[in-house]
UniProtKB/TrEMBL annotation:
Catalytic activity field: aldehydo-D-ribose 5-phosphate = D-ribulose 5-phosphate
Lineage: Bacteria, Pseudomonadati, Pseudomonadota, Alphaproteobacteria, Hyphomicrobiales
Organism: Pararhizobium polonicum
CDD domains named among the record's database cross-references: RPI_A
Keyword Zinc (UniProt): no
Homology family: Belongs to the ribose 5-phosphate isomerase family.
Function: Catalyzes the reversible conversion of ribose-5-phosphate to ribulose 5-phosphate.
Protein name, per record: Ribose-5-phosphate isomerase A
Any one GO molecular-function label of the UniProt entry: ribose-5-phosphate isomerase activity
Pathway in which this enzyme or protein is active: Carbohydrate degradation; pentose phosphate pathway; D-ribose 5-phosphate from D-ribulose 5-phosphate (non-oxidative stage): step 1/1
Length: 230
């Protein structure tokens, strides 16, 4: 089974948790897009959901495939969010934001009664941090914010490059008009504390550590999909 087939397997299993009439947060990324494709087939066969997309990219795909959308302003309380992840640890702590959508993803997931992660087994780790941690920052004060993040990282015994994400010739801009710092920390021993302390830096808009948000993960491997819970 190749990587795409595993993503489809996880997305298929996630459909079992989606009920007719649900208000649904819809994630971003290649795994979430497989979910959108399968969801669109169900919608075409008469299944009713109202979706809130976590990015402009997801919104475009939903529109293209006929998945009905509302904004989070129209539907500020959701039943369920289904989204991918860059890393998942055994406590269902996540790193997200590889696609730059972490801020909207976190807002939508936290507005949902439940968040389910869909991923292939390569995303499962014992300790978060092999994937670069995306940190969304305000354009104003970039240098000062980066220094504050470096100092915080040092207090946690973390080092490694903290680079401004680029896209084409310039910096990558998020849907919210912010920049992303990708922090190559390596293994993060205390992700819970780091998450809280990153939020205390004024220029940090949000970060890709999702702690205590997901309650179930569907992990697909060559043998099929399995469920992880906390
Ligand atoms: O910003 C992007 C998101 O957090 C994605 O859900 C995450 O990067 C996983 O994406 P993929 O399913 O493409 O690996």
């Amino acid at each position: 089974m190749d990587a795409r087939e595993m993503k489809i397997k996880a997305a298929q299993a996630a459909l079992d948790y989606v009920e007719d009439g649900m208000r649904l947060g819809i994630g971003t990324g290649s795994t979430a897009e497989e979910f959108v494709r399968l969801l669109a087939e169900k919608v075409a066969s008469g299944f009713r959901i109202e979706g809130v997309p976590t990015s402009e990219r997801t919104a475009r795909l939903c529109v293209e495939l006929g998945v009905p959308l509302k904004s989070l302003e129209e539907l500020p309380e959701l039943d369920l969010t289904i989204d991918g992840a860059d890393e998942v640890d055994p406590m269902l702590r996540l790193i997200k934001g590889g696609g730059g959508a972490l801020l909207r993803e976190k807002i939508v997931a936290c507005a949902s009664a439940r968040m389910i992660v869909i991923a292939d087994e390569t995303k499962v780790v014992d300790t978060l941090g092999a994937f670069k941690l995306p940190i969304e920052v305000n354009v104003f004060g970039l240098a000062a914010t980066r220094i504050a993040v470096e100092k915080l990282a040092a207090r946690h015994g973390l080092s490694g490059e903290i680079a401004v994400r680029t896209s084409g010739d310039g910096p990558f801009m998020t849907d919210g008009g912010h920049l992303i710092l990708d922090a190559s920390f390596g293994r993060i021993p205390d992700a819970d504390a780091l998450a809280c302390e990153l939020n205390a830096i004024p220029g940090v808009v949000e970060h890709g550590l999702f702690i205590g948000i997901a309650s179930l993960a569907i992990i697909a491997g060559p043998a099929g999909a399995r469920v992880m819970t906390v």
